Every structure is written in C-alpha cells, then in structure tokens.
Amino acid sequence: MGEGRQIVFNDSWQPHLYPIVTREKMSSDNQWSADEDESQLSRLIRKSRDSPFVPIGIAGFVTVVSYGLYKLKYRRDQKMSLHLIHMRVAAQGFVVGAVTLGVLYSMYKDHIRPRFFSESKK
Q1: How do residues 91-114 score in pLDDT, each as one tens digit?
Q2: Closest by alpha carbon to 72, among 57, 90, 86, 62?
Q3: Which Pfam families is this protein grouped with (predicted)?
Q4: How far is residue 52's CA from residue 106's CA, in Å, rounded to a whole number?
Q5: CB 100, CB 78: distance < 8 Å
Q6: Bridge partners for 21 per DSSP
Q7: Cβ–Cβ under 8 Å, residues 6 and 24
Q8: How far is CA 31 from CA 76, 115, 116, in A?
Q9: What's the CA gap between 89 and 100, in Å, rounded?
Q10: Which helix (H) or strand (E) holds 112?
Q11: Are the C-beta atoms of residues 31 and 11 closer than 8 Å to each other?
C-alpha cells in the first residue's frame, strides 16, 4: 500500500472480506490531495467533459428501464420473463450504442481531426 495509508480489518463480521482503509495525512503539511476532496457531482461533470456519451448512455438506460416498468402494467398476456428480457436487451442496446458513438467520437477527435485539420494550417 502507499505511504500514509493503513489497513484495519473489521473483526465484527467476516474480517477477511471487508477491510477498512483509513486515511491519514498524505504529506507533512496537512494537505489532502485534490482527488480526495472532489465530490461525486464534480467528478461526474469532469468525466462527462472527457467522454460526453457516458451521461447520454446513463440517461438512455434510465429512460428505457422507466418505460419498461411503466409498460409492465399494460403487458396483457405477455409473460413476465419475456417482457423483462425485452427491456434488458433494449437498455443494453442503448448503452452499447452510446459507448460505440463515444469511441467513434474519441477516435475522430484524437486521430482524424488532428491529421486533416493540422495540415491545412501549415
């Protein structure tokens, strides 16, 4: 483990499965690193700027699951397992599509755009 961290095992219930990591000073001047002070919302915003299709995939997944739960009431004679399988496939399809678009966008941004647009500036 890194310097300044200590592992303490919780002996109340299955100590080998749940170690508790305690935080101590990272340096001698009592300052924490920036990663530890970052909130969940600011981390999500930062990651969204890096890969903008992740929040789109999350929103699509939540939308498909919400719609599936709403339609669960009006499924008529369709079996429950078949309805759940269809909703799972739709939600996974939306997420895979968003990830694929994100990868294509990253490839364009990192490889294609610099190659073609940097030559025209020369």
Answers
A1: 899 889 988 988 898 888 888 888
A2: 86
A3: HIG_1_N
A4: 10
A5: no
A6: 7
A7: yes
A8: 61, 42, 45
A9: 16
A10: none
A11: no
Backbone angles phi, psi at 21, to 5 degrees: -95, 120
Cross-strand partners of 108: none
CA–CA gap between residue 78 and residue 110 (Å, rounded): 47
Among 95, 109, 102, CA closest to 53 = 102
Per-residue pLDDT tens digits for 18-34: 455 555 444 445 554 55
Tokens of 70: 């709403």
Q: Which residues sit opposite 7 in a β-bridge?
A: 21
The maximal CA–CA distance of the chain, rounded, in angstroms, is 68
Tokens of 51: 């890969």
The pair of structure tokens assigned to 36 is 């530890």
